[in-house]
Amino acid sequence: MEYIRAFIVGGLICVVGQIILDTTRLTTGHILVMFVTSGVILTAVGLYEPLMKFGGAGASVPITGFGYSLCKGVMEGVDKKGFIGAFTGGTEATAGGIAASIIFGYIMSIIFTPKTKS
């Protein structure tokens, strides 16, 4: 049942992104920023935590989950370090994922030759 919930939650997040992409003139970059920001806002108002508990990886893997991680890191950083934690908490909480994406992106750029679309 856990896999089904993750599939449904992750799929719904992707469906929302696809609908926005198809019905507006927003670029994928705009949608990416909007999803990260919405993950932060939903976490700040307490709505993303229940979604994480229900959807598991379906809520944590999409880019909204990155916004959730940033927001949780900032909140924990402020609790531990005060005002300076607002600047360091998000980076500390997401450092592993950011480092992994840079490393794997670099490895893929070495292995594969990118081609422009015609």
Automatic annotation (TrEMBL):
Pfam families referenced in this protein's UniProt entry, alphabetically: SpoVAC_SpoVAEB
InterPro entries per UniProt: Spore_V_AE (IPR014204), SpoVA (IPR005562)
Transmembrane segments annotated in the record for this chain: 6-24, 31-48, 83-112
Top-level lineage group: Bacteria
Protein name (record): Stage V sporulation protein AE
Gene: spoVAE
Keywords tagged on the record: Membrane, Transmembrane, Transmembrane helix
